[in-house]
């Protein structure tokens, strides 16, 4: 069966990646995952799949405005507008994560079939996360009384930029996107939750002045649980690729991080979550010395 037929998983992943509207993209990814789980989708691991010349990756809405990461305003959780901006930033990460997972499915031919199933599952779970967060974002209102939506705040394009850098190196992609950039979420989430709990602490009458902060805390519990699994998938396939190529995972990671100018990771690290995600003691020790 040709990879461009409607029933090919990798072609359909590319089609979903090209969708600009977030809600439509989430629905399409969810349906594709269910069809794949039901055995209704053919997985052609070998045929090259590619967008046509005029199609720009990834599909995304006109907003948010994408700006330099250094110019993204600080998001304080101690004001309603600050929490909305923080929530929007996490929405943006999850939207990018859908695209990153879909890109892994369509772009890299010649991998074992479970590779494509794994990253499609990640895409579907990221779509679920985005929907949870965006639904919550719309319960928060600006000073005019309008509900906030995805696109209301500026954001940066750091995740997709690394995706583009590693477009022709699957080992680098596995090393530097899931187990570097996305793994930072394992470290950052508990710190964000601690601030949100401080904001949402009940008063003397047992009521919280910021119940939305506690709702976001609960949503981040779901996301952190799933993200451990996503990073574990990245760790698994990075290790598999290193084994196939006779590479030392730690030594090659150092080479890739330098070659592709990956951000330097600094503590504190969520060592428990990273261990659940498959980081070895040697890898954790390297992170502590490299930072």
How would you sum up this structure in a few lines?
This protein has 291 residues and is an all-alpha fold.
Biggest pleated sheet: none
Low-confidence stretches: 1-6
Q: DSSP helix count?
A: 11
Whole-number total of structural domains:
1
Structural account:
By secondary structure, the chain is an all-alpha fold. It has one domain (9-49, 66-200, 208-290). The protein contains eleven helices and no strands. Helix 5 runs antiparallel to helix 6. The model is unreliable at 1-6 (pLDDT under 50).
Write the layout of secondary structure elements.
Layout: H1 9-18, H2 22-37, H3 80-107, H4 113-137, H5 158-165, H6 170-181, H7 184-199, H8 211-245, H9 249-259, H10 271-276, H11 281-290
Which terms summarize this structure?
single chain, 291 residues, mainly alpha
């Amino acid at each position: 069966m040709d990879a461009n037929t409607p029933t090919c998983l990798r072609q359909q992943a590319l089609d979903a990646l090209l969708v600009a509207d977030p809600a439509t993209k989430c629905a399409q990814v969810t349906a594709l995952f269910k069809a794949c789980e039901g055995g209704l989708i053919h997985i052609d691991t070998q045929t090259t799949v590619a967008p046509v010349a005029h199609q720009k990756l990834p599909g995304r809405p006109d907003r948010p405005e994408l700006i330099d990461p250094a110019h993204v305003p600080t998001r304080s959780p101690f004001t309603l507008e600050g929490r909305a901006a923080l929530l929007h930033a996490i929405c943006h990460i999850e939207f990018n994560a859908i695209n990153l997972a879909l890109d892994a499915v369509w772009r890299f031919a010649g991998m074992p079939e479970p590779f494509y199933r794994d990253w499609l599952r990640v895409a579907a779970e990221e779509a679920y996360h985005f929907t949870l967060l965006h639904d919550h974002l719309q319960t928060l209102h600006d000073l005019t009384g309008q509900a906030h939506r995805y696109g209301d705040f500026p954001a940066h394009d750091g995740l997709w930029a690394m995706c583009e850098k590693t477009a022709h190196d699957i080992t680098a992609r596995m090393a530097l996107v899931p187990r570097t950039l996305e793994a930072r979420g394992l470290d950052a989430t508990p710190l964000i939750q601690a601030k949100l709990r401080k904001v949402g602490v009940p008063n003397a009458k047992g009521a919280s002045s910021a119940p939305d902060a506690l709702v976001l805390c609960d949503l981040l519990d779901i996301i952190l649980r799933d993200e451990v699994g996503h990073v574990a998938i990245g760790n698994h396939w990075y290790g598999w690729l290193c084994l196939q190529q006779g590479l030392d995972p730690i030594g090659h990671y150092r080479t890739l991080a330098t070659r592709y100018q990956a951000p330097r990771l600094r503590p504190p690290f969520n060592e428990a979550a990273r261990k659940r995600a498959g980081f070895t003691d040697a890898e954790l020790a390297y992170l502590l010395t490299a930072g």
